[in-house]
Design goal:
- With 483 residues, this protein is an alpha/beta fold.
- The protein contains 10 helices and 24 strands.
- The strands form 8 sheets. It has an 8-stranded parallel barrel, surrounded by 6 helices. A 4-stranded antiparallel β-sheet has the order 17-18-19-24, covered by helices on one side. A two-stranded antiparallel ribbon has the order 4-7.
- It starts with 11 loop residues before the first strand and ends in a 5-residue tail after the last strand.
- Bound molecules: acarbose derived hexasaccharide.
- The site of acarbose derived hexasaccharide (AAO) has 24 residues, from loops.
- Keywords: Calcium, Carbohydrate metabolism, Chloride, Glycosidase, Hydrolase, Metal-binding, Signal.
């Protein structure tokens, strides 16, 4: 389950948070396919609770596994998956399988199913009270999780009072597996497993063992779904990501926290020369890495205060470093505009309908969507990662402070200046001689560079100068953008 199911030559996914299925289908065809993205992480596709003012987090309170949400219905989901797969862009579903709605209260969900959080009744599945952990399994005073140093409490009690499904019960695992196999049959390529820390690894192993192989019409025969589990492990709790690594990849929150420190100049960039497992992070093949996610960009969840799109300069620097470096399987966040003082604010909408994504003349998004993945530095570095994949990091250079550079085999080279003075260096790139387009300052259209050009000599050396006041104090060149 640890192998990303990307089409060949594609290596990065983007979380199109709260997008509608019809907009994702268009984005696959007009942007993600042509720009070499591996896939899209979509918001939970299953029926969710209706919460007044429609906060984004209502989608993390399942009511049933019917495929009807504000993002669209099952037909629209199928259409999106087919259209994206057709242009080699995969779909990864956010699987919220640890719990149902918050306990207490009752109502209907986005598919019209009734639910009752007092009697723990979810007829849309169906789940009833005995399908949830009770006082037999959870020994905390109020059935909620309070102590993250108590591994049993974290698994058997309620996360923020969400009704905690009893995954030790085969019936519960069968219902969840049925939901995930329905998505696999439709053509999804894998799953983000929400709140994985709150489920026993053994129960997850048993559950994943019930999953079918991917749709052979799309992926060929015998291909397992790609699974990455949300486990917030910053190294200070008894529950560790390593417990989950054997059953799929895990989200690495240390990654974004540490890069946040470096690219805010709170830690020297020269220390990144041994970035990766040496920084007390899991093996590169076992993690999904990212700068920020939908939780911590708004102060939910873990991983400290990461760099987000609200600080574009360090955000582009950190993302460029992430995509240029060989460590981990990379994920970009794509947000909607929200007021940082209102972390509950849901997606841009009119009435109860989520806004369409509109595309401006300059290829940015309108109608309330941030679309970080459409910033030139982001999508050009997604292409950089594709070109250099498999090449070792080499020719590391730094000035002992906040200026760094490194190459990837003979395919790509990057130079970054976070220092308080300009960078002016002749460096060994390892690249073949020629004229390269700097893909940070512009694009390569197949014959010319719209941004700066870099000359690499026969000896592999090139001269780089980067002012320290530039909005984008970095240069990236690769053999896919060479005149
Ligand atoms: C909403 C309301 C609640 C209400 C509930 C039920 O906000 O007041 O009780 O409904 O009615 C999202 C929202 C929640 C929302 C929920 C359901 O974030 O606010 O609750 O939907 O609508 C823990 C989990 C982690 C989880 C994270 C938010 O371990 O899995 O909390 N993330 C996922 C999703 C998230 C979603 C859910 C789970 C639920 O991504 O969007 O919630 O489906 C420590 C622990 C972490 C823990 C955090 C926060 O983190 O280690 O495991 O995450 O605390 O509780 C440093 C430390 C780090 C620490 C962090 C924060 O970074 O190193 O370890 O500080 O203390």
């Amino acid at each position: 389950y640890s192998n990303p199911t990307c089409a060949p030559g594609r290596n990065t996914i983007v979380h199109l948070f709260e997008w509608k299925w019809s907009d994702i289908a268009q984005e696959c065809e007009r942007f993600l396919g042509p720009n070499g993205f591996c896939g899209v992480q979509i918001s939970p596709p299953n029926e969710n609770r209706l919460v007044s003012n429609r906060p984004w987090w209502e989608r993390y309170q399942p009511v049933s596994y019917k495929l009807i949400t504000r993002s669209g219905n099952e037909d629209q989901l199928r259409d999106m998956v087919n259209r994206c797969n057709k242009v080699n862009v995969r779909i990864y579903a956010d699987a919220v399988i640890n719990h149902m709605t918050g306990v207490g209260g009752s109502g209907t969900g986005t598919a019209g199913s009734h639910w009752d959080g007092d009697s723990l009744s979810y007829p849309g599945v169906p789940f009833s009270a005995w399908d949830f952990n009770s006082g037999s399994e959870c020994h905390s005073s109020d059935m909620n999780i309070h102590d993250y140093n108590n591994a049993e409490e974290v698994r058997n009690c309620r996360l923020v009072s969400l009704a905690d499904l009893k995954l030790s019960k085969n019936y519960v695992r069968d219902e969840i597996a049925g939901y995930m196999n329905h998505l696999i049959n439709i053509g999804v390529a894998g799953f983000r497993v929400d709140a994985a820390k709150h489920m026993w690894p053994g129960d997850l192993r048993s559950l994943f063992g019930k999953l079918t192989n991917l749709n052979s019409g799309v992926f060929g025969s015998g291909v397992k779904p790609f699974i990455f589990q949300e486990v917030i492990d910053m190294g200070s709790e008894p529950i560790s990501a390593s417990e989950y690594i054997g059953i799929g990849r895990v989200t690495n929150f240390i990654f974004g926290a540490k890069l946040g420190q470096v690219f805010r100049n709170e830690n020297k960039a020269s220390y990144l020369h041994n970035w990766g497992e040496a920084w007390n992070m899991p093996n590169s093949n076992d993690v999904v890495v990212f700068i920020d996610n939908h939780d911590n960009q708004r102060g939910h969840g873990g991983g400290g205060g990461p760099i987000t799109h609200f600080e574009p300069r360090p955000y582009k620097l950190a993302t460029t470093f992430m995509l240029a470096h060989p460590y981990g399987f990379t994920r970009l966040m794509s947000s909607y505009n929200f007021d940082r003082s209102n972390t509950d604010q849901g997606p841009p909408h009119h009435g109860d309908t989520i806004n369409d994504v509109t595309i401006n003349g300059d290829q940015t998004c309108g109608n309330g969507w941030t679309c970080e993945h459409r910033w030139r530095q982001m999508y050009n570095m997604v292409a950089f990662r594709n070109v250099v994949m498999g090449q070792n990091l080499q020719h590391w250079w730094d000035n002992g402070n906040y200026q760094i550079a490194f190459g990837r085999g003979n395919k790509g080279f990057i130079v970054m200046n976070m220092d308080s003075h300009s960078l002016d260096q002749t460096l060994q790139t390892g690249l073949p001689a020629g004229t390269y387009c700097d893909v940070i300052s512009g694009n390569y259209d197949g014959s010319s560079c719209s941004g700066n050009e870099i000359q690499v000599g026969n000896d592999g050396n090139a001269h780089f100068s980067i002012g320290n006041t530039s909005d984008n104090p970095m240069i990236a060149i690769h053999v896919g953008a060479k005149k």
